[in-house]
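My current task is to audit a protein record that another person submitted. My question to you is simply how this chain folds and whether the tokens agree. This is what I was given:
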Amino acid sequence: MIRIINRLTVLPRYIVILIDQFLILFSVSLAFLLRFNFDTTIVLEYNPFPGILVFLLASLFSTFMTKSYAGIVRYTGIQDGLRIVRTELLSMVLIVLINLIYHYNAGRNIIPFSVVFISFFISSLLLYQYRLMVKNVFTFYKGGHRSKVPVIVFGAGVAGFLTKQALESDMTSQYKLVAFIDDDPKKNGKDINGIKIYSVDKLGELAAKFKAKKLIIAIKRLSIDRKNEIVDEALNHQLRVSYVTSFEKWIRNNFDVKEIRDVNIEDLLGREVIRLNNSAIEADLTGKVICITGAAGSIGSELARQALSFKPQKLILIDQAESPLYEIERELASKSLQTNIVVFVADVCNKVRMHRIFSENRPQILFHAAAYKHVPLMESNPSEAVSVNIFGTRQLADLAVEFKLQKFVMISTDKAVNPTNVMGCTKRIAEIYVQSLDRHLELLGKASKTSFVTTRFGNVLGSNGSVIPIFKEQIQKGGPLTVTHPDITRYFMTIPEACELVIEAGVMGQGGEIFIFDMGKPMKIYDLAKKMVMLSGKELNKDIEIVFTGLRDGEKLYEELLNDKENTILTHHEKIMKAKVSEYQYDEICRNLDLLEDFIHDRNEHKMVTLMKEIVPEYKSNYSRFQVLDVAP
């Protein structure tokens, strides 16, 4: 018997229909007996057989009309119950109509109305209950009787109930629900279908009592802070943590346990959904020609995705990276037929090439994300950092003025504040140039001038070469995880959040502003590494170690968004502030940049970095060969 059930994956539909008809026959027969107090003599005198035949035919017709047989019996849920009720209601309506027609012609009912109503309730109950019985048999014999891993679910609401249904419905699932925990004290001590609900502070006791191995978060709306608290508590008790990605399929009775996946570090470092001024953004971007440099990078590609959603007339993508640029072009082309997407493999430092692109495509808004960003690499190759980050930006800014762009939005970095490395200083000088150019155009009284806006933020999660992908790779290899210093801290922001704020700041900017974003609280990289090891199910210093390698060239322990002489002005968006920074004269910065360009051509790195330190006095090298150039105070 067990072998037969194990081989049987789906109960054939003809068997479902036959069982349904048998139960309906039983229901109407029982209804006749109940109606006449189990007096078979009276029942036979009434001649119930024509009525029973009509009842069976009406039920069979209703079954095919509503396809109540279509559901897979072993996955029976609430939706199947509702489908059965609809089938039996339709059957009852048909029989009532037949009864009325028969009574009109023969002067009597073919089946008593009371029998019709009684059989409706009996058949609905029996049809649903037998499906649940079959489901339980399948569940037991296809794995339910085997030993399963005990799990605890956080959230004893509708979402928690659906999670329980999903775990019980999937016969391949290796998990068994043993307890619910919930923040609501009113639920404490109650149960959901036999599974007791406990308060959250009992998590450690429950994990030990049931020998639980996993905690599943099953709450639709849970703040990031609360999610972190729950995850930390679970990890302290050696519990793996998962969460339900979406409840929509489960609500539709499609209980796929693939909706439950492990929590990763990005889920814990993200923040609440940003509210954007979409009407203002639409007015600024819809129907426009938008250009994005560095479009194949982490920030540039996400900017392209978000910009595309506002239906620009044309989207121009520029990058040197051929393969990633091809991939983002394919992705965007599949999402929109309204926007003309054009791509250029080009170097922003190539003046002739960039001039031709601007001349032929006439962009109106430019998001400038092209830059070299890796600190140690740029410390070793300062000329490249200066060429791309400073002179590439200068060239694009000048082209924006020449071709009368409406807006130039530059992507900067928190490393531009009190820079300790070449990369950070090049970004600060680029900020200085575009801001001074905006002020210069304003003084010239150009009414239709290009507005230059700078956005400044910290590390983004999952960007190319960032610490999180590196840690993931190291964990997959079994470690060790390499951290430069036990006290090093960084701000983190998700790529979509950063790009949403870039677009919002770009729209609100009138020209000359440097906007900084609320990056939340900085996080120790060592703590980040520890949590990633624990989330992977490994034990720190047993399965995987963390080793300290020392600060790299130009690296500092913590990043800042403003230097000591700067402060901020609030804007209408709570996550965007305007920085009050030291401003420079346009003519002065131009003279310095011309001299800096000469040093590049002369390949004189020391003179080049010395001049950069003069332009940005707060630039003090750290763990770098250029420390010798710093003037002692």
